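Reopening this one. Same input as before:
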Amino acid sequence: MTGESSVESRIAVLTDWGFLGAFGVGFVLSGFSSDSYLFGLLGFALLAAAFVAHLIINRIYAIEFAEGEIAAAFAIFGLALLGFVASWLFTPNFDRTQVELSLTGAALAVVGCFAYVVTRHGMKGSFSMFHIKRPAP
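Same output, byte for byte:
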């Protein structure tokens, strides 16, 4: 990849997450604050669209996720999970809609991980990562 192509891919990724990611986080936060599952779901849909767009950008520029991007994704997921557990334990008015939104976000993150593995390694390669090959008797 040329230096110019590298800059273009970074700009495309930053634009993708800066637009879709910002609106997605805004709608998710609105869903939590107003107890609106619809707003939260719209936010998660925008975040999923941003991830899919990131996969498409990576495919167009023939690049993979950088180590920093993977580390940031795990850190964000871990902080979100920790925030969910802490909110559930320590917030007296943490109601059903907020629990459902949290579980929807966690499920979306798991689906995103599987989508990444499948797009990166293909169906056969992703299955081979988890399947133990035993020698024939």
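So the earlier flakiness isn't reproducible anymore. For the record, The chain has one domain: 3-130.
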